[in-house]
TrEMBL record:
It comes from the Bacteria. Residues 1-20, 211-256, 299-334 are annotated as: Disordered. The chain crosses the membrane at residues 56-79, 85-106. Residues 211-227, 301-318 have a biased composition (Low complexity). Residues 231-247 have a biased composition (Basic residues). Residues 325-334 have a biased composition (Basic and acidic residues). This is DUF2637 domain-containing protein. Keywords: Membrane, Transmembrane, Transmembrane helix.
Amino acid sequence: MSTALVAPGNAKSSGSGSGVDRLRESAAQASQVRALSTHPDVIALRVESIRTQVDVLMWVGIVLGLAFTMVNVQAFAAAGAVTWSLPWIAAWLLDPMVSLVLIAVLRAEQITARYQVSDATGWLTRTKRFAFAATYVMNTWHSFIDRDVAGIVLHSVPPLLVFCAAETAPVLRERLTEAVLRAERTAADANPTAQPLTELAAATLPPALESDSAATATADAGTATPETPKRPARKAPARRPAAKRGGKTTGKDKAQAHWVVETAAGREPSGAELARVAGVDASLGRRWAKAWRYEAPYSHAPAADITPAAPTDTPDAIDIPETDSTDRIEGEAA
């Protein structure tokens, strides 16, 4: 009767193999999470989520504050009129009239602040402050006349809080936009050839996993079925930049010209890079990159399937792809 002997080192390695595999998987996941967490597109997504929360909370506070002042403004405008009389009913229109103009200005500032567009005329600030001043005076008039300190404090808090919220909201939106732009600039300075977000999902594995993957690929190479060699594809003519409209180059024209130059060199610009060239928001640059990527699928073909076109004496020569009829004619001539 024979007894199998197992070396101590082999027993230890076989028992800890599953733990090593889990550690390698955790290391690979941590590497991908670290690469994605600092990507400008991920940061922009998080900032947009925070921006939505800030806008919702600001608008809820502003609407509640304006609704609170409506009763006092109506009492100020009615001036002791009989209930349900025409002056009493018309007095309810005064506060909504001021509030709607104020909300319109704040809604416009919500967009202009996001794209960091300043008001050169100053009318936005004048209109907003006049509406706040009118609301505050009408809301606290009776308290000042009666010298009611408690009433002054009570009716001053909502208008002043609405004023502070309206002045702070555009500043917060500008800071959030600046955070996105600063993240893009930092990423571009650190790595000018940063990969798009879709390519980071297949990020490079740690050295230990790379060696295992290489060994597995080498072992599978011996049993792999040889593929039929493919006919070299003809190089498609490069796209030319869009013509200027009206003799003036737009930001989209600059971005498209940059796209054509970079794709012709074998590199695909990211949406953030196109946005920096055109001087627009990063989301617009990503939308352009997606559209142009679908318009020109040949610009992303692997380098192994593309062969340089034969030199010709005529500039801008266009190579005609081979067809089956051309192959038959060549065979008959042979």
